[in-house]
Amino acid sequence: MADESKKSKYSYRIETPSSGDGSNIETVSAVLGDLHSLARLPSAEYPTLVNSGPEDTEDAYYIRLNNAIQVLSDGLSKRAQRLTEAIQKVCRVAMASWEKSSKGRGIAAVAAFDESMLKEADFLNLKEKIKKLKRKVADLSAARDETNKLSHRIHRKLEKLAAGTPIREVLKEVEEGLGACGNDNVSDDGSDGASASSQATSKNPVSDNAIIKELEAVLECREQKINELLQLQDENEFKITKLVSERKTPSEKEIKKSDVYKKLSLKLSSAHKAQKVADVELVTITQRLATARGEILLLHKKLEDQREKYERRWRDLVQLSESRGVRESPERIRSGAGGLNGDKKNTNLDNYYDKKDEKIVELEHKLRQALGGARHTETYRTALEEARLLSEALEGEVEDLKRKLTLSTQSPTGGAGRQERPMDNLLRENSSLRQLARANSRLLKQGAQKEEVNVASLSEIMKLKQQEELQSQEIAALKKRAKEAEQISLAARMASNARARLEEEILKEKREFEDQITLLREECVKASSDKEEGERICEK
Hints:
Elements (H helix, E strand, L loop, with lengths): L1 H8 E4 L14 H12 L8 E4 L6 H42 L6 H58 L3 H17 L4 H16 L4 H39 L5 H6 L1 H69 L2 H7 L5 H69 L5 H124 L1
Antiparallel strand pairs: 1-2
Keywords: Coiled coil
């Protein structure tokens, strides 16, 4: 029950820090500023226990948490969008400078881009200054409110003293007010005012009118500062609106009319055409591969058939040798060697097996000779076929020459000397034809060998090309990885530098805070001593 009552009386609060609303450009100074702002967030225990009021309920807590997370996600998305826009601008300017470098326009494009980036940076710096000034204005307004409250309190205490209330009661009320101010984190000016009022009530060195005039002068100075800051805010907002109105984004028609868009469209069309050609080549290559596989399977089948034939022939020869060995069996050797002792029988058996091994070796040799003879007969058969074809061609030419010879002999003008000349020519032509046939057969064999070499070389070339493509892809991947590693190392270096700077700034602020704490402690000691002196005076 006690726990339930605590839950009903209290609620919890969790603050979600944000790194900005996405208006900053991704520069080193902006990132450092955001890190500095995150580091300056007030330290608090999570979850923080607060008193439950009309605004500090659990539903309100979840609503605030949801809003804080939404602000954080919106800021991150806006910053990512700003970064992508900046990268796209850089790419466009780089492409324009690359295209127009020959015409002398690249420098102007880069300068224009630099100007636009500088304007944007100035615009964002002004926005940041405006935010800082707004914070200062809020602090000053809070300080003004605190001074007004203190002045009202002082007036009330003076009126009570004038009405005749005792000094001890007034001092007790002042002490209670100072304790409440310390618990509520009152500013330095308010504490100084309270101490001054206590001193005034204790010692009364100056008049109340002088204190009121001093407070009015402080208020006037702060109001003047607030007015100046408001004027500066208006001027900065006017500059921001002016810079925003100057920015122009290209339309879709302008983008389509640009040279970069045209070149990219041409490259895209050429890439589509190359893809179609590659698809056609892929289909043809797959067809050729299928035919080559079919030929390879056919050759394997032929080799298997040939191997089966040779195995069958080998089995026949082995059976023939075994049948011969049975005819010369060991019983026959024993019967032929009857009356001999056991040693002679063993020697006869050894001789029998030696003869059998010799016969096996002899049969293997004969088998090799038979296979070689079969190969030679096959080559002879092909050579005879070629010779037959050549002889048929030569016989046809001889018939033509005979026909010409008969025609020349039948002519009345021909003589004996003229008849001998065609015969000599015929013999010469026959010899030349034989030489040509031999050269032709030799050239055909060389052509077949060259075709085989060309096929092997083409296959090797294709393999080397594939290996080259794979190596080029690996090189490109390695280059890409190297670039990514360089970018990561650069980012890590920048992060380490930012961290070092942030640590230095945090140490400086820590020292400043420690100095301020020591000063405040000294002031507290002085105030306590003044209080004790005032009490002593009042007791006297």
